[in-house]
From TrEMBL:
Gene3D superfamilies: MFS general substrate transporter like domains. The keyword Membrane applies. The keyword Endoplasmic reticulum does not apply. It is a multi-pass membrane protein. It comes from the Eukaryota. One of its GO terms (molecular function) is transmembrane transporter activity. SUPFAM superfamilies: MFS general substrate transporter. One of its GO terms (cellular component) is plasma membrane. The chain crosses the membrane at residues 24-44, 64-85, 92-109, 115-133, 154-177, 189-209, 241-261, 281-300, 307-324, 330-352, 364-381, 393-415. This is Major facilitator superfamily (MFS) profile domain-containing protein. It is found in: Cell inner membrane. Keywords: Cell membrane, Membrane, Transmembrane, Transmembrane helix.
Length: 458
């Protein structure tokens, strides 16, 4: 189906009825969180190159920033989802913004005392806040509206993440990566102070805004309206578990790709760039990412998201091979192929893997956000290979990661087709019962055909 995973057209959105004005306001407010995530993510990749020089450490040692930053998702995503389940989306957002601001402010003393451990700790705290925000925002966007448009909504909202992601390297190239600041961490202090102020401003908006809450009961009602009966625990939902694996490998490949782009252009004999110039190239690549995300989002309205996922992941894999085996302009083309291909993978995987979860949607969102921890696992592997061989060859690590979402997309194509058939049959049964004026039966009794039962339990 074009807009989601096995969602029946005409099924009403979960939660209380909203006017278009209320729905657009809630969507805009939640989308602002993606902008905050993009700013922070764009800065952390360039900060990796900065600390290599400032603290005189190796590429492998510098990846501790990524380990702390993305490892926080492994530690904090599930607690964040449980918090959201108990206290609601709005309070979870405020918690995430508080942690985000605290982490950003912690960079000030870390830079002042030139403590690399402080940088690592600050990255961990800010990422705990982001893990909370992502768990909430991704999940809320997917359920804020009709199910069949979930992938479209999430990709559109995540486009603003891409808008902010290119600002991070641009800000860094004009501040702490300039020749004037080559031996200083002062500009790092002020950049992250500004990030903290931005987070605080958004927190104030959420404190006073009236955000419509969507409960687990609302999500369960939506499932019943769609004719989907599935009471299995989360760990038995194969499309969600495999989605987590795909997300883990993809995010690992995405993060490690961006982490070493600055090194890639600095070490290239053909380019021979300074740190500031290499950061600008990363900015251009992030611009390509942003433009591709906006441009590719409409594809999810017309084509099966699973096929779009596999196609874009294939483009990333080809780009990684090109980087590993070439130099010069071909290598540059490979970098841009990856960033263009990455544009729709994360949000599309998220919407596919959290589809049809009902009251488990918030916990499923937490599990998918845990997949971001792949960003902690892949950079050390690539850093070790880059130190042992060279940065170009190390992109074979990214290639391996990009291959997994190709397979996941292919598998989900068949899953969504079977689920769509199941939903259609269940709705037809409901109409038949209603037409015969029969008493409403429990949705778990409507699925008697063994083939339909097997389709649901994929």
């Amino acid at each position: 189906m074009a807009g989601g995973a096995a969602a029946a057209t005409g099924v009403k959105a979960a939660g209380p009825p909203l006017s278009k004005k209320q729905e657009y306001f809630a969507f805009a407010l939640i989308t602002s969180l993606f902008f905050l995530w993009g700013i922070s993510y764009g800065l952390i990749d360039v900060l990796n190159s900065k600390v290599q020089k400032s603290f005189g450490i190796t590429k492998l040692q510098s990846t501790m920033l990524q380990v702390a930053y993305f490892g926080a998702y492994l530690v904090f995503s599930i607690p964040a989802s449980l918090f959201a389940s108990r206290f609601g989306y709005r309070k979870a957002v405020i918690l995430g913004l508080c942690l985000y601001c605290c982490g950003a402010l912690a960079f000030w003393p870390s830079a002042h005392y030139e403590a690399y451990g402080g940088f690592v700790g600050s990255a961990f705290i800010i990422a705990c806040g982001l893990a909370t925000l992502e768990t909430v925002a991704n999940s809320y966007i997917t359920v804020l509206g009709t199910p069949e448009r979930a992938a479209f909504r999430l990709n559109f909202a995540q486009s603003f993440n891409g808008l902010a992601a290119f600002l991070g390297p641009l800000i860094a190239s004009k501040t702490f990566l300039t020749e004037k600041e080559a031996d200083s961490l002062t500009s790092v202090q002020y950049v992250y102070l500004a990030v903290a102020c931005l987070g605080a401003a958004v927190a104030v908006l959420f404190l006073f805004a009236k955000l419509p809450e969507i409960t687990e009961e609302n999500l369960e009602d939506e499932q019943e309206a769609a004719g989907i009966a599935d009471t299995r625990p989360l760990w038995q939902r194969k499309h969600t578990i495999f989605g987590f694996v795909s997300q883990f490998c993809y995010v690992g490949a995405q993060v490690t790709t961006a982490t070493f782009v600055v090194n890639l252009f600095k070490e290239s004999k053909h380019h021979a760039m300074t740190s500031s110039q290499a950061a600008e190239m990363l900015t251009y690549a992030q611009v390509a990412f942003m433009v591709s995300r906006f441009a590719a989002t409409p594809l999810l309205h017309f084509f099966n998201p699973s096929l779009v996922l596999s196609a874009f992941a294939t483009l990333c894999s080809v780009g990684a091979i090109v980087i590993a085996s070439t130099e010069g302009h071909a290598m540059t083309a490979g970098v841009f192929m990856i960033f263009i291909g990455e544009s729709v993978i994360y949000p599309t995987t998220f919407s596919l893997a959290t589809s049809n979860l009902g009251r488990l949607s918030k916990r499923g969102a937490g599990l998918l956000c845990m997949g971001v921890a792949g960003g902690a696992a892949f950079p050390p592997m690539q850093g070790a290979l880059a130190d042992a061989k060279n940065t170009n060859i190390s992109y074979m690590i990214a290639f391996a990661g990009f291959c997994v979402p190709i397979m996941y997309g292919a598998g989900m194509f068949f899953y969504t087709r079977r689920m769509a058939a199941t939903v259609a049959q269940n709705l037809a049964l409901q109409q038949e019962y209603a037409g015969n004026n029969l008493e409403k039966v429990d949705s778990t009794d409507k699925i008697e055909d063994s083939q339909v039962e097997a389709a649901i339990r994929v």
